[in-house]
Structures are given as structure tokens and as C-alpha cells.
Design brief:
This protein is of the alpha+beta class. It folds into 2 domains: 69 residues, HSP40/DNAj peptide-binding domain; 67 residues, Alpha-Beta Plaits (2-Layer Sandwich). The chain is 16% helix and 38% strand. The strands form 2 sheets. It has a 6-stranded mixed sheet, with no helix packed on it. It has a 4-stranded antiparallel sheet with strand order 8-9-7-10. A hairpin with a 3-residue loop joins β8 and β9. The longest helix is centred in the middle third of the chain and has 13 residues.
Length: 147
Amino acid sequence: MLTFTQLQPPNYNAAVTFTLALTAEERTRSRHRFETEDGIVFLHLPRGTVLHDGDILQEETHNSLIRITAKPELVLTAFAQTPLLLLRAAYHLGNRHVPVEITPTYLRLSSDSVLRTMLEQLGLEVKEEILPFQPELGAYGQHHHAH
């Protein structure tokens, strides 16, 4: 059993023991237990730690390293005809404290039929995809609620 307690500076050449693929929600948990092919892995990170794709964690005693990757998950990607429409959709999603990945060309969120309907009614084109998801950090924290 390995317990990882420390976030290393990103280092793409690090000799990692294995890679742990986590969803966006899992990457926000500071304490977590995973069963992997390599055995049981505990994450015991400082509260409020949010892991990102490519982060390296160091194990407390054996100095083994694991790399975190963003696990592809079911997401909705919403495209708008105009920047204003995209901003409006981001505002409505933000009001609901939904974790959203915001880019200049699309919004991405966890798949949710109610939110999909709302976005389509606003006039966005929404498609369901399975992709790594990197939401903005602000939606987590005290507003975080499980569905």
C-alpha cells in the first residue's frame, strides 16, 4: 500500500512508478483511496489541493512517484455562434456553481441532461463527448456538492 502526500514540481522526465487517471471531481479530493493494478493507493494531500493533468506525487516513504492524468470522462461541450452567447451560458452555469471548463471557443461541463436542455434553450450547440475535463477552480471549495 502506498500513501502519496506530496506534490512534486512538474517534471516530464520523472521516473514514475505508474500513472493514476482521475476524473475532474477526483482530482479535487485531498484524501482518496484508489485500488489500482499496482495495489492500493492513498492520496493524503494538503486540504484544498487540486491536481492537474501531468502532476507528479511523491510517496511518503519509498520515494516512488506517480503521475496524475486527466481521465477522459463524459462531458458536454457547448459551442455558441457568438462570444456573447458563450459568456451568457458561462454566467448561467456559474450561477449554479457547476464546475466548467471555459475557453474562448467552447464551454465544457460534466454531462447533465438538465444543463444540456438549458444550454440548448439559450441557443448553444451541445455535444456529448468523452474527454479529459479541466474545470476552472473557483467552482470547487465551499460550493462543492455531489450530484
